[in-house]
Amino acid sequence: MTPTVIYATFALVFGMLVGSFLNVCICRMPKNESVVSPPSHCPHCSYQIRWYDNIPLVSYLFLRGKCRGCGAHISLQYPLVELLNGLLTMLLFLRFGPTLAFATLFLLCSALVVITFIDIEHQIIPDEISLPGIAVGFVLSFFLKGHTWLNSLLGILLGGGSLLLVAYSYQRLTGKEGMGGGDIKLLAMMGAFLGWKAVPFIIFASSLIGSIVGVSIMLFQKKDSKLAIPFGPYLAFAAVLYIFYGNLIIRWYLGLSGLNQG
Q: What is the pLDDT of residues 190-249, one digit of tens each?
């Protein structure tokens, strides 16, 4: 095997190992429980999971998705999170190599995986992730090439400020809360990591994808527009889309509209 394949495989395995910890965060953070103690255990029978039953993806397949202690079904979320985080880590490594940019975006994407699954199930975005994430993204901007502290600061202000304005305007017009504070802090965190230029793309892409998916769900379930749909996963997906294809999509759009001519 070539060195690139070996390193990419290592990145995949490393990402899945981290994904195993992310599952702990996803399960415990909404309950305000420690993500360190007690050790991983079955929520049904409290069977303490041994290391050989905690190997990402492999253990789930070997146990056929059941607890060794009581035979209870293990949620598909566990291998899905492990595989998703592993694939994201591998793709980031292939794109950026062993650089600080890779490490920075790895932190961001891992945080987005946790936020996505928590928001889908509980419709909350933990401040324990987004608020420290804003600070971490800003501090790292001092060390990243092509990403200045000013770019990060403007990203925080534009990310948080734009959604805050939308939320305030919607509430003034309708008298109802249409967007939670979690989404505002999440976009501010994305702005800290990715800079202000990423914010308009993320807002547009997440709104477009969210509208398509939301309308489809409402039509399928035959529910009205009052159906609560978490927006965090769409923001997260749009941020990942920007990381890998943002510049390409922007250039394509500008070329299609003729705005980049002359």
A: 999 999 999 999 999 999 998 888 788 777 776 555 556 789 999 999 999 999 999 898
How far is Cα 226 from Cα 239, in angstroms, rounded to an integer? Answer: 26
Report helix, strand or coil for 69: coil
pTM of the model: 0.90
Distance CA(196)–CA(194), nearest Å, equals 7
Question: Taking each helix axis from N to C terminus, what angle separates 100-122 and 3-28, rounded to the nearest 10 degrees?
Answer: 40
The two structure tokens encoding residue 232: 């965090």
Instruction: Give the 3-state secondary structure of residue 93.
Output: helix
Residue 85 phi, psi dihedral angles, 5° rounding: -70, -35
Distance from chain centroid for Cα 12: 17
> Domain spans of the chain?
1-98, 126-262
Question: Token digits for 134?
Answer: 């804003």
